[in-house]
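Service request form, structural biology core

Requester: graduate student, group of Dr. S.
Request type: structure prediction, single chain
Budget code: on file
Notes: please return the result as structure tokens.

Sequence provided:
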Amino acid sequence: MPQGHDSRLTQQNELRGSSYPIVNIYGCMVKKLTAYEYWFCAASEVLPKMFVSPKDTWGVLCIVVALGAIASVSVALKIYNSVTKERSKNKTPLTLLDPTVKYTLPLLEKEIVSHDTRRFRFALPSPNHVLGLPPGQHVYVSAHIGELVTRAYSPVSSDNDHGFVDIIVKVYFKNTDPKFPQGGKMSQYLNNLKIGDTLDFRGPAGRLVYEGCGNIKIKNFRKEPIIHHHVKKMVMIAGGSGITPILRIIRHVLDHPEDNTHMNLIYANRTEKDILLRNELDNAAKEHCDQFTVWYTLSNPDKDWAYSTGHINANMIQEHSFPPSSDTIILMCGPGPMINLACSPNFDKLGYDSKLRFIF
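Core staff response, request fulfilled:
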């Protein structure tokens, strides 16, 4: 193959040679010239040579073919430039490129959030990396603890955070719950990690993706098609560490001024010290009072507790949530008994559409 387009064009000065003039045009493209080089090549070399004999029908045919080729390549260049421009918008490297691959990440920091809850910060492959986890999705972490143990967690960090991922874990210690005297395998393993120790991450995973501006994708079962919802309001119910997937969606909405979705959160815990990330929730409700509200309920409150007491009930939902509507979705995450005995029956009682509910 010729090494430069100049020599190739020179070899094809005669229109009736063994190669068509169109080859010159494609030759320029094959050389991956810039758009300016391409048009200069086509205009200054190929087209003038086609007018050697205006009466030559072969020349006319070549002109038509060449002009068509130029138009086609023009479209191709526009598409290429568009794709290149779109790719250049997001140069931030993602960590979770393949949901079937495990990514080993080292522990950077440990923080005591409460008496039984810890925040773990793991380093991503570089300071520029983000996790690459859409709101509503979760990751699987795994470790060999006598056997392979895998657990699902929703990070509390987002893709606005570069170089690290944070997960909040409730630690189930030995001999604290008679039903589980050995405690939690993974949570205790994480609690004993030292800085620099590694953990395997895999994802994204999950059946819900919040795309922003009220657009939600849900896949209830593997073989069922994805369901698309567009909502204006979200009723959120969380219990204990179930706040983590809810929080990621709250953050995403409030971090994007163009997202006008309104949110109510009812957050249930045993005691006041069990409330996770309360400062962030209270500050968000204060700064975005026209878009986000939070209400707490405790099983065992102190005497001066200013919010609700006891399990979530119909009155609590009516007072602190949006009423049933076709543009309102319910998102729930928490212990099974809370969801099955307190939340779902009361949403049924109040007339909320069961098709507009999602349990993480």
